[in-house]
Amino acid sequence: MSIEQSSNLITICSDSIGDTAEAVVQAVIHQFQNQQITIKRYGNIRHEDELRKLMEEAAQHKGFVVYTLVQPELREMIKEEAVRLDLRIVDIMGPMMQAFIDTFDDAPQQRPGLLHQLDENYFRRMEAIEFTVACDDGRDLGAMLKADIVLLGMSRTSKTPLSIFLAHRGKKVVNYPIIPEIAPPQELLSLPSNRLIGLTMKPDYMLKIRSERLKALGLPTGSQYASLERITEEMEYASSLFNKLGCPVIDITDKAIEETAGIIMGYI
Asked: Hey, which of 67, 122, 220, 223 would disulfide with 13, CB 3.0 to 4.6 Å?
């Protein structure tokens, strides 16, 4: 859906890359149903003319502006532009920075992009992402021994998106598909349970997801893959394997990726 067609536009404005603001926006969107929202993100905003232009464009559409700006002149200007254009704005970082100042008697550096500077944490995240992509869907069984987290689950239990999300948090992740006809590898059986996470969901929810997946691929929906009998068989096998491994199990039914990832981080 193009912005011109959209009646619900959220504009993100940042003097960095804007992913912090977008993560907050996405988390909020998940709390509402039947909302067709378009997000437009402006990153690396450094000059007042850039800010003025994006605010004028945002004012042409129904919606509001979410911003993460640390430079005082840009923070002041976006407030002035919001008044001039009668446009709602939401400051993501401001209240947190003020609480930090008031509580710890400190002052912010006011330098954009500090979160994404090329420090040790940055390189750790990049290494984790490369590792996780290379090990997707059980492609490298030996990598399990080097992983921080091994995700286990049936087909369509969000293993891959969860793995990538966790990799962006600096965790090396291997995801392994559970199939009744394939015995678990020795590498998996040798791992401590605190590095393993089992993923499951309600059978009727899985049936719906698999049926929609087959439709998207242009395949008949009456196949065994999308039958309740097959799904029940897989779930029973997965449950017995999780019990054998002694690992935590998360029911991801109706859970957003961010919520599931938060639970996993709590476990490890």
From this structure: 67
